[in-house]
């Protein structure tokens, strides 16, 4: 494994206990503020010493509390990119990038800098100082400087949080491209849901110093392991109910919030009739049924009616808040803008939606 760690750290009001193994991949550490994401990066890099455990980078133990090993930060060959860029103000772009390149002849170092200037879209800015750069240019320079040292792992602590939307979008694409060009284990900390979805190959969802779920993007976003994870990744519609019946392919649930629903049974479900369960469905997975449409067989089982109480714009989509007639529960439905316009929906309208059986995920 390119990165393997098992670390613990205790504070008066907070405890962190994590264990992960990563290959050459891009991992997103995702979760709410205060979950311990940034602290995790600092302990991997050596900026903060764990109370106990071990950190292994490319097969080398850089920290092992039992063996008394604690390799200094500068010797770990760990690239760490901060939110604040941390560029040297008295150095030009090319000088910042070249800083830290060691053990390489001048010609090789110069070629490395030129290569990174091109990859990071900084050609033409070589002689500028940080004060003459935009926020995005500063961050690209900082990332190029981090890569120039040929790190064995790359740690990025909310690297794009201080930038505007368009710049963030471009830099996310840059990071994905860089990961292809320089395949190194990369760990990105973020609490931005869109960023986590765009960047991740795998996601570790953190909460209160622990990992609640670790898996692929699809697993975490569409098959959350806990109610907390479902909430963190924007599932929004989380309900409780009692199991009425179970077959090899289906679970029927009676929910005070949305009535009787038929959910596809997935492999990990071990529910039995009479048991209480939590189930969820993402807002973008809920279609609105047109008033004049004849119900198809695949959607006829889980029809929920209610009144639209609010509509909120979210850029390319709108979020409908719908009060169900069953249970008077708030149901969230996300629609693309063109669909909302086509359906001509407004606050106060009565609508029908379908909770598609294959989109319902039973947490347990």
Provide a brief overview of the structure.
With 364 residues, this protein is α+β, with helices and mostly antiparallel strands. It has 2 domains: 3-230, Rossmann fold (3-Layer(aba) Sandwich), CATH 3.40.50.300; 235-362, Beta Barrel (OB fold (Dihydrolipoamide Acetyltransferase, E2P)), CATH 2.40.50.
Q: Secondary-structure blueprint of this entry?
A:
Blueprint: E1 3-11, E2 14-22, E3 26-30, H1 37-45, E4 52-57, E5 60-64, E6 69-70, E7 78-81, H2 93-98, H3 106-119, H4 135-148, E8 153-157, H5 165-181, E9 185-190, H6 193-199, E10 202-207, E11 210-216, H7 217-222, H8 227-232, E12 237-246, E13 250-255, E14 259-264, E15 276-281, E16 288-289, E17 303-313, E18 317-324, E19 330-336, H9 337-343, E20 350-354, E21 361-362
Helix pairs in contact: 3-4
CATH topology of the largest domain: Rossmann fold
Helical stretch tally: 9
Distance between the termini: 32 Å
The CATH superfamily of the largest domain appears as P-loop containing nucleotide triphosphate hydrolases
Classify the beta-strand content into a percent band. Answer: 25-35%
Gyration radius, to the nearest Å? 25 Å
Order of helices and strands: EEEHEEEEHHHEHEHEEHHEEEEEEEEHEE
Arithmetic mean pLDDT: 90
CATH class of the largest domain: Alpha Beta
Query: What strand line-up does the widest sheet have?
Result: 7-8-9-3-10-11
Question: What would you say the CATH architecture of the largest domain is?
Answer: 3-Layer(aba) Sandwich
- Unreliable stretches covering 5 or more consecutive residues: none
Main sheet makeup:
6 strands, mixed
By helix and strand content, what is the structural category?
A: alpha+beta
Count of extended strands: 21
Overall helicity: 10-25%
Gross morphology is globular
Number of domains: 2
């Amino acid at each position: 494994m390119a990165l393997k760690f098992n670390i613990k750290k205790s504070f008066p009001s907070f405890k962190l206990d994590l264990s992960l193994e990563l290959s050459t991949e891009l991992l997103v550490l995702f979760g709410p503020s205060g979950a311990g994401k940034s602290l995790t990066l600092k302990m991997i890099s050596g900026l903060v010493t764990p109370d106990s455990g071990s950190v292994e980078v490319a097969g080398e133990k850089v920290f092992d509390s039992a063996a008394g090993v604690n390799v200094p930060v500068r010797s770990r060959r760990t690239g760490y990119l901060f939110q604040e860029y941390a560029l040297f103000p008295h150095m030009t772009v090319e000088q910042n990038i070249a800083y830290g390149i060691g053990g390489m002849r001048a010609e090789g170092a110069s070629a490395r800098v030129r290569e990174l200037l091109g990859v990071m879209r900084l050609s033409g800015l070589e002689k500028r100082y940080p004060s003459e750069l935009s926020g995005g240019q500063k961050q690209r320079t900082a990332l190029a400087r981090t890569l120039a040292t040929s790190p064995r792992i790359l740690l990025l602590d909310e690297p794009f949080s201080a930038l505007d939307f368009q710049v963030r979008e471009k830099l996310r694409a840059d990071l994905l491209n860089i990961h292809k060009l320089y395949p190194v284990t990369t760990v990105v900390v973020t609490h931005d849901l869109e960023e986590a979805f765009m960047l991740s190959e795998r996601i570790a969802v953190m909460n209160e110093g622990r990992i609640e779920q670790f898996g692929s993007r699809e697993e975490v976003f569409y098959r959350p392991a806990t109610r907390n994870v479902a909430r963190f990744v924007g599932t929004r519609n989380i309900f409780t109910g009692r199991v009425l019946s179970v077959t090899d392919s289906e679970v029927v649930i009676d929910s005070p919030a949305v009535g009787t629903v038929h959910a596809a049974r997935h492999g990990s479900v071990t529910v039995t009739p009479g048991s209480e369960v939590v189930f969820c469905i993402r807002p973008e997975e809920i279609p609105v049924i047109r008033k004049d449409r004849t119900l198809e067989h695949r959607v006829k089982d889980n029809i929920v009616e209610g009144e639209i109480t609010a509509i909120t714009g979210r850029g390319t989509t709108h979020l409908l808040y719908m009060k169900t007639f069953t249970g008077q529960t708030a149901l969230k439905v996300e629609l693309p803008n063109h669909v909302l316009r086509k359906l001509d929906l407004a606050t106060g309208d009565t609508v029908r939606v379908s909770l598609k059986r294959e989109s319902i995920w039973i947490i347990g």
